[in-house]
Amino acid sequence: MEKPFRFVLPGAIVAAVALSGPVFAQAQSGAPNLASTTVVTGRELVWDMAFLPDGTMFFTEKCRGLSVRAPSGTITPLLGMKDSQGYPETAADLFCSGQAGMNGVAIDPEFASNRFIYVYSLSNMTAPGTNRVLRLTVNPDMTRVSNRTDIVADIPYKPAASNHPFGDPGAHNGGRLRFGPGDGFLYVTTGDTHNGMVPQSPTRIGGKVLRIDRDGRPAAGNNAPQGFDPRIFTYGHRNPQGICFRPGNNQVFTAENGPWHSDEVTLLRAGGNGGWDPRPNTAGRGDCPDGYCGYMPNQMGAVPPAERSAFMPMTDTKTYPDAMKPAWNNDGLSQGMSSCTFLNGSQWRDWSGRMVVAFMGIGIHGTPVGNRLDVLDIAADGSSANRTTISLPMPAGRFRSVVQGPDGSLYVGTDQGDIYQLKPGN
Ligand SMILES: [Ca+2]
Questions:
Q1: How many helices (H) and strands (E) does the chain have?
Q2: pLDDT classification of 355: cutoffs 50, 70, 90
């Protein structure tokens, strides 16, 4: 439930004002006031951001490529995709298709010595194409990248349209990259690609969270079941686009799109099953269009979300009693949950230690569009959460990426091509 809106101190309230500088929003009880500054604008489909300690920000645009923003605000293009203009170099095999393209970006924890950054991108180097995790070396001037090494080359993508809602190529492509602050391993989220066989498959690495080292080798302790690809940390996912770590204990959570019901935030455990299994002729379901039951029982028509969930659950604990249960399921709705990050620091007041989860918004069959940022107070054991919706100091957009920067602010990237800095104040 949302917290009731109450004024804290009249003196602490700053109404929205027309300034060229930050725009403020009123705070809810126990919450910080937020000031918004647009730090990047006029870009195209911003997908992810990653920060160095000095505030340098790498960011991706899904159909253009990788750029870097210096603390001064200067933006330098680094690596373009096929046909991108204005980059010092382009990679002819990198392309975009639907949800797939250049997605996540992460910085090596030892960047100061090895200069490595990583991007997740769709590539046609092999037919019909796969998602790859590229490791790149950044030069001292932050003007070029070199020494591309594809540390993962076999993440499936969806190459052809199918008979499903949003059935275009590139669907359910995952794509977030984050280093675990506790273990130093790279976590990679992958999507089910509208293929019923993928999420529970022991060898196809879609519908998974992978945990690997900087060379793409499996992390020790992944604990996937016997016969599974050893890079698999968790499986049985639909389309996780968010992964984030709780400060203090490094619990790892995914944020995952639901199928017209139940976006999920889930505490992961090594070797765990997320319980998504859209195979035909499984768990009491019959045949389904193009081998994928994910939108049934009536994939093109209106069905109450709870009925959909009973028929095709995001977490099937009947078939998989040990499945990882979500901490939160967006009140049973699907609204395009995209990304998560934890807030940390006393400037965030009551929100310090809580998760921010971003929504792109999808309005279907009476579900409100719901593009917004929520703050989740998640139980210590990950079994439940309470939600507060942020009063935005900027226009609602298709919020694709959220990251807490090294200055303690929350950065928000949008499909509209903006990156906002949300700075908490008192
Ligand atoms: Ca699940």
A1: 2, 27
A2: very high
